[in-house]
Design a protein that fits this description.
There is one protein chain. The chain has 272 residues and is mainly beta. It has one helix and 17 strands.
Amino acid sequence: MAARKHAKFVMRPSDGRSREMGLLQGMGMTMKYPRFSAIAAGTVLSLGLCAGAFAQSAPPSGQGQDTSSLGYQPQGADQNAAGPAGSTRPLEVPVLYVTGIEVMHATLDPKEMILRVTGVTSSAGWSNPELVPFFYGKPTDDILDLQFIATSPQQSQKAEGFMPVSATFELDPSTSFKGIRVRAFGNALELKQMTGSVQWQIKKSDCKDCIGKKFVDKGQGQPGPDIIYGGDLPPDYRSIGPTHGVKGMVHNPNRINLILDGDNKIVMAFWE
């Protein structure tokens, strides 16, 4: 099955539903498309797979702030936004990091196996996190391979700290899978059995305290006090000096942008 942009292998009713349904039925699977208000509906397969998720994010802290000193009116209603809405922005993309996998076994009927996955998004403004299979079919290594995705903000967001998210995925207890692998934008995490849990610690900076500090790129210096070192940032960061242009039209909500002055000090930090 062909991959969509940003490695998202999700089937939707609007994307050739009849053809995809035929492919799934040929594999002994069926797809359903339920709608929920608080829980994001995911993929439902005859193997007993389904997914739901709940976002844990606070409202933008910049709402209600005085923008009269800017001399212009920022676009959009989100006062936490750091730039214009991107017309070519991908909406559903992997979250920044996956931080934990836990397998829970229900003892009451109907008995179910529930996978709970935790992670973080790059900023506030994300919604509808969910777990979706990386591909459909039985892998030869018997590992259930999932992507942890969510709906990204419509506008760039200020770097004010990572935001926790979680999602669940249900399995039939009789599944033949022997382990679980979950992929995010910046990492992947694997639980090698269908019981217990595994965790991963984030060691990268969320850049919420970057403003006013000097930026030093990888290979051009060393970490130190009041220095933001490129090697300590999440992947695909972008530093933009006063003489630099910007390339590309597709926004990446998992890429942090650092705006620098002439002395390489950070004057603005935001996620695309």
